[in-house]
Amino acid sequence: MLSRYADIGPPPWISTSNAVVLKSLPYLAISSGGRQSGMRLSNWGLLISRLILFPAAVCLAIACPAAQGAEDVAAGAQLFHERCTACHSADPTRKPGPELSDVFGRPAGSVGGYHYSDALKSAHLVWNESTLDRWLAGPPAFIPGVNMQAFVADPADRKNLIAYLRSLDNPHP
User: How many Å apart are CA 121 and CA 92, to the nearest integer?
Assistant: First the structure.
């Protein structure tokens, strides 16, 4: 049954000049009427690495946030305590800005007891990673007429801060 594949050699895109040949098993042999033909095991390894492992590594690098410099919740917490706690808290307080726990999925300008600008109340947006990133990059540029003037210029700092804010969310039943 395998005899019809006996004369198949290495594919033309496989270079045999730089292949390492294993001395004990130099060929993956297919027997055909007294002849042996086959591809060197090192070529199979090269083929597997080029056709399977490399594309898999590329897909993993694209899909895996850790490979792309994932956000750091601890760094976000430090940034929050350094730059945001003058006006905001994770718990209800008498600070000038609204509390930021459970901010994800919350409509902007909806925390009771806080006086929002008309611009933010009429913005009709829900806080998520995208809206928070745009907001933190420059609140007046995102929604003209808002009260908040502080911003976070560095995209990595914004990601870390957003990750910290997400960690403050309580799971909703």
Answer: 20
Beta carbons within 8 Å of 31's beta carbon, 6+ residues apart = 2, 3, 6
Strands, E assignment, 17-134: 27-32, 35-40
Q: What confidence tier does 45 reach under pLDDT thresholds 50, 70, 90?
A: low
- The domain limits of the chain are 2-68, 73-167
CATH architecture of 73-167: Orthogonal Bundle (1.10)
Instruction: For strands 35-40 and 27-32, give the pairing.
Output: antiparallel
- Burial class of residue 13 (count of CB atoms within 10 Å of its CB; 0-12, 13-18, 19+): exposed
Query: How much is the pTM?
Result: 0.58
94-121 pLDDT tens trace: 888 898 989 999 999 998 888 899 999 9
Measured torsion, CA atoms of residues 109, 111, 116, 122, in degrees rounded to the nearest 10? 20
* Residue 78 in this model has a pLDDT that exceeds 60: yes
Q: What's the mean pLDDT in 154-165?
A: 95
Q: What is the largest CA-CA distance in the chain?
A: 90
Query: Which value, to the nearest 10 degrees, does the dihedral of the CA atoms of residues 104, 110, 112, 118 take?
Result: 140
